[in-house]
Write a structure and sequence with these properties.
With about 120 residues, this protein is α+β, with helices and mostly antiparallel strands. The protein has five helices and four strands; from the N terminus they run αββββαααα. It has a four-stranded antiparallel sheet with strand order 1-2-3-4. The longest helix is centred in the C-terminal third of the chain and has 20 residues. It is elongated.
Length: about 120
Amino acid sequence: MNRVYRLIRDAKESSAYRGHALTRFVHAEDGNSARAHCRRCGAVAVVNPSPLPNGIDVHGEAVAVHCSAPKSVPEVARAILSDLRELGITDRSAGVELADLADAAMLWHSLLKEALET
């Protein structure tokens, strides 16, 4: 696997972790760098296997910040569960089922979304 494709894989992983849904990477005319954007918010991810000195090989908003597009209720619940597990919070340590926390978060998200729409 060449360096460009490894960098693209890294950019996709980083962007997905931040909630972005990237388009396919399009290679520049020089064939060296490639870029994609988030289908939801438009943030860009760029890979450059030969950056200038002190340059960055993977960069852009999509690899640096979380997606600003509104999320669906199931996405919010999955993200909350993932964050809790990442923090080491388990069903036993929380004293409740994590799924119950996710259900409560989904309800809160639905109510908030409904309130903002009216």
